[in-house]
Every structure is written in C-alpha cells, then in structure tokens.
Amino acid sequence: MTGRRLRTVCLLLTLLMVPTLTWAQNIGTIRGQITDDQTGGPLGYANVTVKDTNFGAMTLEDGTFSFVLPAGTYTVVVTYLGYESVTRDGVVINGERTTTLDVELKPSVALAMDAFVVEGDAPVVDVKSSSETKKKDSEDLTAFAVDNVQEAMALEAGITMKGGDLYVRGGRSGEVSMMIDGVPVNDPLGGAVQVSNVAVAEAEAVIGGMDAEFGNAQSAVFNIVTREGGSQFEGSVRYWTDDYGRQDKTYTNYDRLAVGLGGPLVSDDFRWFLSAEAQGSDGEDLTLDRREEWSALGGFLKFKDRASSSLNVQNKLTWRVNPDLKLNLEGNISWDSNDRYIHNWNQEGYVNRLHLFERLELSGETDPNQGEQFFYVVRGTLPVLHGPWYQAYVQDKERQRQGLPTDFEKVLIKYKPSGAGSSVYEVVDAMRVKSAFSGTEFLVLTDELFDGFMDTLSRWSYIQNDSSQVYYNSAEHTPTSTSFTNSVKFVAVHNVSDNVFYKLALTRLGFERHSAVDGKSPVEYSTAGLPATLHNGATVRSVSGEIYYTDPNNPFLASAYDYPNYFDRNSTSWIAKFDLTSNRWKSHKIKTGFLAQYNDMYNEQLTAPGRTRILVDDQTGRVLGEAQGRSANIFHNYAPLTAFYVQDRWEYKGMVVNGGVRYDLFSPGSGVDILLRAEGVDPTIKRYKQSLSPRLGLAFPITDRDVFHFHYGRFIQAPSNNDLFQTQDPNAGVGILGNPDLKPEITISYQAGVKHQFTEHVVGDFAIFYKDIYDLISSTTAIDTVSGNQFGRYINKAYASARGLEITLNRQFADNYGGQIAYTLSYADGVASDAEFGATSAAGLTHLPTKELPLRWDERHSVSASLRLADPGSWGGSLIYSFGSGFPYTPAFPDVRRQDPELENSRRYPATHSLSMQAEKYFNVWGQDLTLFFDGRNLLDQDQIANHDPGIFPALRYAQNGYTTYLTETGNYGGAYRTDLDGDGEDEYHPVEDPRVYSPHRIFRIGFGFEF
Fold first, then answer.
1. Rounded CA separation 949/344 (Å)
2. CB-based burial label for 298 (10 Å; 0-12, 13-18, 19+)
3. How far apart are the C-alpha atoms of 959 and 962, rounded to whole Å?
C-alpha cells in the first residue's frame, strides 16, 4: 500500500470514529431490580423496555437488570406474565453515569383469581431454551381426533409418521428415544413401553438442540410425564365405538374404554393414580378367520374375539415424605394381540389331501426259512387321496397299538435294517389302497409317511368336489402376534437445599414378543414334506419342498399349510439414573448425572419352522445333526451401557448459554466373538466403545418479543442390538450375519431459529436445521474362507444428510378458540434407507450408489393445521388438516435384472390430504360432567398410499410378484402378479387390489365421557 493510500485510509477511519467516540461519551447505564410487591421476592425474566426505542433487557434470575442507552429522558415500561405492568415516566439518563430503577410489581387481579391461568400457562416464549421442543398436554389428546401421543406429535413441524413409524428431521425411525418421567423405556430389541392417553399429564418432544443429559438418540427424545393423584378423589371414564347397533353397521368393529382414578390414600401426602385402557378392533381389512364368540346373560350379551386387542394398566403412587422429599413408585403392564391381515393368505375353500405310504411289490422269490413263502420288498412310495377309508385306517392303527385284531393283512417282507450288514425277513401289517395317480390298487405298509398336500396332485377348489378335498381357510393359518410389557420404576426427588436437588430413578423393564400360528411350537407347524407329528408318531419323511400355492387359476392365493414364520423373543433391562441440579452459583444452573443400563436379550426367529436343516461343521464338513427351521436367527446375549454428562445454563445480561458434554460407553458383552473368517474382516472385537459428545446452545432475546437461538451438537446412538447379535452361524440360513464389533452411529447437528410473540396468545417459531449422519449401519458381502460361501454382514458404512426449515404459528386457546399451523420443508438424502442395503438390495444393481439419493421417508413438503373451537362447559369442536407432498419409491422393470442405482427412490407417491374432526357436547348430570362426542377420520376418504409393495411371503411358485413393476409400468396401485394364464406365451399383469397398500379410509366414531 502506497503512503498516499495509507494516509487516505487513516483519515477516513478518523472521521468515522469521531461520532462514535462522541456517542460513547454520552452513554449512561440503567440498572435495578424487579420484585414482587407482596412477597418481596425477585422476578426473573421480566421485560424492561424503553418506550419508543429498541433498548431494553430481560431481568436475570435474581430480578436484576442492566443495560446502556444514550443520555436523555425516557419512559420505562416493566412487564411480567401474571403481574400488572408498570410505566415510569421521566427517567433521566446521564452520560457516563448509572441510574438506578427498582420496581415492585403487583400480581394481576384477573390472573390471581383464575388459578388455571396462573398455574397452568407457561411463558409463551421460553427465552432460556436453545432446543426445539414440541409440547402436548392431556387436553390436546382428548380435544382432537388422535389416538395416542405419537399421532399428536406427528402434527408438529419436523416430525413425520409413515406406516406407524416416526421420522424426525430426516433421521431413521429407530433414532427416537422414548422416555417416561425422564427415564428411558425403549426395548433393547425394538419398541417401547406404552402409556394410555388417560395416564398422560403432558408430553414433550425435543427434536433439535438436545442438551447433554439426553443421549443414545440421534433424532429426538420423546418424554411423557404421567399423572399423579390429586388432593381429592377424582375419576374419569371415556368410551369410543364405531359400532352403530348391527354387525354390518360398523367400520372396523372398534371399541375402546379408558378409565382413570386417583386421589389421596391414607393421608394427603400419600396419593395414587390408576389408569386402565382396553381396545379391540378388526381393522379395515377384514380377514376370513373365524373368531371365537362368548355370550353372557343367556345370550343377551355377546363378545367376539377381535383381530387386534390391547390392554394397558398403570398405577402411580406418590408419597411426599416432607416438603423436600418426594417418592414415586410406578408400575405399568401392557398386553396386546394382533392377527395380521395378509392379502394372499385370505381365502377359504377345499384342497386335495394326500397320504404317503411305502409301496410293496412281490419279489417273485421265496424265503427258504419260511417254507418257500413268497416275500415282498419296498418299491418306493405311493401317494393316496384322502377319503372315507382313512377313518377305518386310523381305527385299525389304534387297535394295532393296543394289540387287538385289525383288518390289516399279514405279509412277509425282506429289508435291510439301518446299520445292518445283511437283509432280514419279517412278517408285518399291510393294507390295500388306491394310487392317487392311476386309481390302481397297491399293497402298502401301514406306517404313514406323510399327511398333507402334494404338488401336483393337490388342487384348489371353492366347492368340495369329492371326499378327498378338505376344508382349508388360509386366514386361520396366519400367525397371531402377542406382546407383554411390564415396567416397575422407583423415583426419589430430594431438595438438599434451597438451590440443590437430585433425582434418582431405578427401573426394571420387561418385554416379551411372540408370533406363531395358533400357538404352535416350531415342530408342530404344517409344512409340505414335513408336516405336524403324524397320528401314529412315526418318523416323517420329506418328499418335496414347500407347497403353498395349489390353484393353477389363481397362483397368488396361498392354499396350503401354515404361514412359515415363527418368532419368540424377550428382553429385560435394569436401569439406574441419577441427576443432580444446582443453582448455587449466580446466573448458573449446573446439572450433572449418570445412567447405567444392563440388557438381557433372547431372540428366536425361524423361517419354515416345521422343516429341519442340516448342520455341518465348517472345518471338517462332518454332519453334526439337524435343527428346526429352514433358517434360524437365535441368540441370547447380555450388553451393558453407561453414560455421564455435565451441563451448564449460564445467564448473562439476558443471554443464555447452554453448554455441556456427554460421555457414552457401551459394550456387546464378553460372550460374543466374530465367527466369520473372511478377507478384510478383523476377527478381534473392541469390547468397549466410547464416545464424547459436546453440545453448545445459545438463546438471546432480541427484543421483549423475539428470541434467537442456535445449537450445535454431536449425537451418538449405540448400534441396533439386532444387528449386533444376529446369528453368525453359517448353517442358520439367514441372509445377513450379525457383527458384534459395530460402532455407534454419529450425527452432527446444527440448528438456528427465531421465536416471535405476536400477541399475548400468538407466537411464531422459525427454525432451520442441518444434519450430517455418519457410520450408519448398512451391509456388505464377504466370502467365508473356510466354506467358500458368500454371506452378507452388517457394517458401519452408510452416510446421510438432512436439512430443512420449519415454520410454526401457534395460538394458545383463549377467547373460545385456538389453533396451530406447521410447515416443514425437508431434504433427507443418503446411500441406504435401511441396514440391509448393500447385501440384499444392492445385489440387483449394476453398481453401488456413488452419491446421496432420497431416502424412503423423504417427504419434501408437509403441512399440518389444527383448529379448536369451544365454549368450555357447553360445547367443543376441532379440525385437523394434514398435507404431504408424497414419499418416494424405487421403480422396477420386469425384464431388467440389474437396474441403475440412480433410480433409487426416484419416483413419488401422490400427495396426501387428510381431514379429521371431533365434536363434543357437555352436560351436567347430578353435579357431574358428562360428555358426548363424535369424531371422523380421513373425511376426504382419499386413497393414501401406505406401502405400494407390502410383500408376498413365501414367494409365489407359479407367478411373479408384480407390485412394483405393475406400478412402474401402469401407474396403478393395489398390486398385481405376473404370469401367463391365457396361454398366449406372454406374461400379463393380474391386479389383486391389496388393501394393505392403503392407509385407513374414512371412519366415524361416537362415544361418551364421564368425569367426577
């Protein structure tokens, strides 16, 4: 820079600084304290503003404030929620001097008289929080047409529900941690403890900016605060139904009953609250399963089993030992049962039943030891059609076991016993039956080898053509899934001093899940070639592969045997959680704590459970024996995890800084090893995985009505226990082997936003977010060096990103109305939508993706609007409107074996529009509150796509699953199969109109509520 230019710059800087220095010399300071007029206590977070200027501040927690402003005379206004505002005119500010202004506020008479307003309403804008939090209370769950907390939260910006799963800000569905009263309640194998609506006091979803106390969740934390008993005995009953008096006048045969009772027990310091909720429904997709019915009062009342039933009971005991110590003991029990609707397993008719025997043939030779008597030998097997003869046969077999005379023939046979060196002769029982092929009569041994359906002799018919055809209802051969959950929790909250308290929670969680056909054990499953145990207890023989489809005119519908899947698992978790909070240091709120959790997990999942598989030693090739199930995922493991955190909320001159760090440690346990021996697979396991997660947030009041917030955080989540511990047995037949050395998944999240209070009841929230997601679990293939076989294997390989903005405008309920509008713009991109991608999905691709593509829950635009109109004590009504721009799907083409990965999730479902409503009328009956209500869901009756291809299992035998290709080529939903039925040599589509493709259509419910 030349000397001339340097002089010019210095001159300009001097000229610019002169007015600045002059202004600084005429700056004064105003400070003071805002207190309660009656108690003298400080009022933190009161607004102190200078009228007709942009100057002002918010008081600190001790009620003090301080800020600078130019010298002059001003009007100062002090406001605080629940208090009368105070205006001070003629406040003089002198340059370089401090002016003191102390103000006492009087409680607002109107608010003081209304206990609900004073105690129930939180500040409209939380100036201390740098997180993005969504809240619902018990009234939100009853005033709107929602069934649970998850449905209510799905109306908020940033939260998406697809197929019953929650996706938050572009993350996977398993990235949400569920908590009850601040304690995690997730099943370590998937799922969580459920709470009925009547037990909910309030619910909170932290979807961004989570403080260090929250961990093991990449996307969000949902916390439900359960109700406690009040000072007086109280109760409520609420009943819903869509049954209007006749069986054909119902939508889903839905009934739901919720009861809540609570109050003091023994003394006012010892209280209880009990809730119970029962629900039953057949769903919109009715099966042909014939359900058991019970009757009472001579048949006046009738009860029928439902396709879906559930029961939840929760009890909470609260003991306030003294003003500084409160103890809670809470128990929760949940049970539910569900008969799945499976479209290709929903027909009834008749199918040919066959039996298999060993066929005898006269040898033409004689036995010299039996007086030159001719003998028979076994010549293969003979299938025989079922018929009237079978009943006489069963009776003769029973007489045979008892040593009584039978109608069987006595014949001499020659055979070689297993393991014997030479043949022997023996007189055995035989009988004459007709071949299913030709009708010719043959002599057979009486021990039955097989009882069931055989291809191609078994054929389907909707009417019974002859006695060989037996009734078969495929819906009665599908599995019933049951679950039982129990939890016990002890919580102690102790105020050690005026500014220090701790919370200790000890919890035990138990989860049981079971799925089987008619309660059968695996060996009892009927499977072609290996059916359930025969009546005579004989060793069965496998004669063919599975045969599930026997109707040549409709190869889509299953027509034989049991749905080939069995599932049984249980898990137990012991959790200790301790949190210590201190306000001892001025302007600081320090919180620290730890969590220790120990999980015990058992899993058994079998495909084709009635069949057996051969077990072979990988090293020697020696046959070790047989095991149940064509494929099996069985494990029993123990896994601990622990965490420690410390965080501080520092308030300085109206600004709030939230900083903290979290340390997480988890282990797959000492009982697992890496069994796969393959190139690139490290056989060692790092037993303890450690992670350090810093969090930093900022909340800064811009004006008395505006708050800016920012948050940065590193979030980790332990890998799925199912992926960690899935069997590594090469004989198990599973598609992908588990990997006990998986690392935690990592999310780096950024968030910024502004909250603005428009009026006393209206607030706006604008937020933007960006997330980088690393070490997501996906899968790859590896070749076992011992057997030479290729296996899939879970690894930390995938990555993703999510970004978007959220806009919410909320009006708190007041003056008979309230509502909310929430808009979300979101992009969720990555290389894998699930952990199986890479070993299964990628097998049909020309190459693996080289860039991020939309994930299957990537819905670009979503809008939710809710409106509540009510005259409390008289009537109420609400509306919910939801719009979604459509989820993506991957097209497929029938004759393309390997498609371009760029097509992954390249097409979109149609946009969805949903409108729901609820109307209520309140009555006072004998001094008690009675409510009659009516609600409607999906009033527009739109065909909303839930899943264009819900799956066909087992695979079709004489056709191809054409759900996706049918949609790709025709644009039609509902599913189809492809085969050549007209004999022209070309496969064509045959639509099946699968109702599972769609979400529930329009339904109406009525009910009543009673409170006392």
1. 13
2. exposed
3. 9
Q: For residue 23, what pLDDT band results from cuts at 50, 70 and 90? A: very low
CA-angle at 488, arms to 483 and 490, nearest 5°: 160
What letter would DSSP give residue 523? G
State whether residue 140 is helix, strand or coil: helix
N-to-C CA span, the chain: 85
Per the rule left: phi > 0, alpha: psi between -120 and 50, beta: everything else, 299 is: left
CATH of the domain at 50: 2.60.40.1120
Q: Is 1001 within a domain? A: no
Provide the number of structural domains found in the chain.
2
What Å distances lie between residue 957 and 131, 342, 547, 611, 954, CA to CA?
A: 54, 17, 8, 18, 9
* The pairing of beta strand 103-105 with beta strand 47-50: unpaired
User: What pLDDT does residue 871 have?
Assistant: 94
Of 846 and 280, the one with more pLDDT = 280
- Count of helices and strands (H, E) across the chain: 8, 57
Residue 889 pLDDT exceeds 90 = yes
Domain boundary pick from 98, 119, 140: 119
Measured distance CA(710)–CA(641) in Å, rounded: 30
Q: Does 55 map to a domain?
A: yes
**What is the C-alpha separation between 353 and 605, in angstroms, rounded?**
29
Give me the phi and psi of 762, to 5 degrees please. -110, 130
Q: Give the DSSP H/E element, type plus range, for residue 10.
A: helix 3-25
pLDDT reported for residue 196:
92
CB atoms < 10 A from the CB of 74, how many? 20
- Tell me the Cα Rg of the chain: 36
Average pLDDT, integer, range 891-909? 86
Q: Which of 956, 815, 847, 832 is nearest to 890 (CA)?
A: 832
Look up residue 514 and give its amino acid.
H
Element (H, E) at 19: helix 3-25
CB 1009 within 8 A of CB 299: no
Q: Are 181 and 225 in contact (CB under 8 A)?
A: yes
Strands (E), 686-759: 689-703, 706-717, 736-737, 745-757
Which range, of 307-321, 550-564, 676-690, averages the lowest pLDDT?
Answer: 676-690
Is 289 contained in some domain? no
pLDDT recorded at residue 124:
61
- Asked if the peptide bond before residue 888 counts as cis, ω within 30 degrees of 0, the response is no
d(CA 875, CA 872): 6
Task: Please check whether residue 833 is in contact with residue 171, taking contact to mean a CB–CB distance below 8 angstroms.
Answer: no
| Containing structural domain, residue 107 | 20-119
User: CA 700 to CA 755: how far, in whole Å?
Assistant: 10
Residue 407 belongs to a domain: yes
The string of DSSP codes covering 623-686 is: EEEEEESSEEEEEEEEEEEEEEEEEEEEEETTEEEEEEEEEEEE---SS------BTT------
Q: Which residues have C-beta within 8 Å of that of residue 140, sequence separation ≥ 6?
A: 146, 152
Nearest Cα residue to 550 out of 457, 677, 642: 457
Query: What 3-state class would DSSP assign to 863?
Result: strand
Interior/surface letters 487-518, b for 16+ CB within 10 angstroms, e for the rest = bebebbbeeeeeeebbbbbebebbbbbbbbbe
Give pTM, 2 decimals.
0.83
How large is the average pLDDT for residues 774-788? 86
Note the pLDDT tens digit of each residue in 49-84. 988 776 788 888 778 887 767 777 889 999 987 788
Q: Which of 82, 92, 98, 71 is nearest to 47 (CA)?
A: 82
Question: Which of 66, 101, 119 represents a domain boundary (last residue)?
Answer: 119
How many CB atoms within 10 Å of residue 420?
A: 9
pLDDT at 112: 31
pLDDT at 531: 46
The three-class DSSP label of residue 198 is helix
